[in-house]
Specification:
The chain has 8 helices and 4 strands, in the order E-H-E-E-E-H-H-H-H-H-H-H. The chain has 215 residues and is of the alpha+beta class. The chain has a 4-stranded mixed sheet. The longest helix has 23 residues, at 92-114.
């Protein structure tokens, strides 16, 4: 049995799919018919009671959820995520730090913007304020990444790691990008990688405001 990745096009499982491609790990993609930003169908609870994707079914029968956790699990199991030929983790502390940082401060911020009723309750009058605050917090997080990239080409060192894939995906979702030229450059480097570009186009060209994989 190979890995089975459950995702829907345009959602966070892109990062896992791209990493599996770069690490040359066999997997099968099971797509859920659901548009980005909509609620997952009821059947998703059978895979993950929290009704979120991605979900990774492992060859040994384990089921892993949460993007950062899946990245950590794959890096532990497969040296090709840590030491090439396409992905490198030069600084393990940075790998763990920034993957969790992106999950908690950026990914969660987007969830607040897209699904405000989860945090406020249906019919709340505070939706606009929540979305504005979440967008500002996401911007603050990318400012930290932008400053970090003034010292290095990639987040965890001089070569691309799984965290760069994760960050590029999230940054491409952000609408206020002009003040982050280094994050733009990182996203372009990731999206245009020969192994990533086909996965990127399949997931994002139909709904993002920019076709990042094409120069």
């Amino acid at each position: 049995m190979t890995y089975v990745l459950h995702n829907r096009l345009g959602s966070g499982g892109f990062a896992i799919e791209a990493v599996l491609e770069l690490a040359e790990i066999p997997y099968r993609l099971e797509l859920i018919e659901s548009a980005p930003g909509s609620h997952l169908p009821d059947g998703a609870a059978a895979m993950n009671p929290w009704r979120q994707i991605p979900v990774l079914e492992c060859p040994d029968g384990a089921v892993v959820t949460e993007t950062a956790a899946i990245l950590f699990y794959l890096a532990e199991k497969h040296g090709s995520l840590r030491e090439g030929p396409n992905l490198y983790v030069e600084d393990s502390a940075a790998f763990y730090r920034w993957a969790v940082f992106l999950s908690v401060n950026v990914y969660e911020g987007f969830l607040r913007m897209v699904y405000p009723e989860r945090y406020l309750g249906a019919g709340s009058a505070d939706v606009s304020a929540l979305r504005k605050a979440a967008s500002a917090r996401i911007g603050d997080a990318f400012k930290l990444i932008e400053d970090l990239l003034s010292e290095t080409q990639f987040i965890c060192g001089d070569r691309m790691s799984p965290v760069d894939i994760y960050c590029a995906m999230l940054f491409s979702w952000h609408r206020k990008r002009d003040e982050f030229p280094r994050c733009i450059a990182l996203t372009e480097r990731v999206a245009r990688h020969p192994l990533v570009a086909p996965v990127w186009r399949k997931n994002f060209d139909h709904w993002l405001d920019r076709e990042w994989a094409d120069g």
